[in-house]
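Figure 3 (text version): structure tokens given as input.
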């Protein structure tokens, strides 16, 4: 039987708003909905839970930024995405299996 994780959305939001925030909204403190990036962060965490590498998750985040959000790829985009993927992976690793 496959065990599905129970992610703490507040933890993923903390990572998203402090480490990622590709649009540069600034988060709920700036009046934006707290759930702005939830679907992307939940999918990233799910990918890590089911064995995808941090590199694969970083590629997913870059694709979201460049193809879905229409942002320009800059020289730091992949490094930032890797940093976010690593932090999400560290969180996912703490969850019971």
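Below: residues designed for each position.
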């Amino acid at each position: 039987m496959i065990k599905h994780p129970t992610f703490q959305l507040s933890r993923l939001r903390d990572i998203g708003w402090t480490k990622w925030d590709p649009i540069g909204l600034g988060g709920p403190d700036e009046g934006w909905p707290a759930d702005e990036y939830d679907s992307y962060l939940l999918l990233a965490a799910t990918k890590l839970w089911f064995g995808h590498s941090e590199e694969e998750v970083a590629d997913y985040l870059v694709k979201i930024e460049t193809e879905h959000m229409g942002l320009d790829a800059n020289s730091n985009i992949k490094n930032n995405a890797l940093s976010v993927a690593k932090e999400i992976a560290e969180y996912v690793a703490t969850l019971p299996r």
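The chain has a mean pLDDT of 93.
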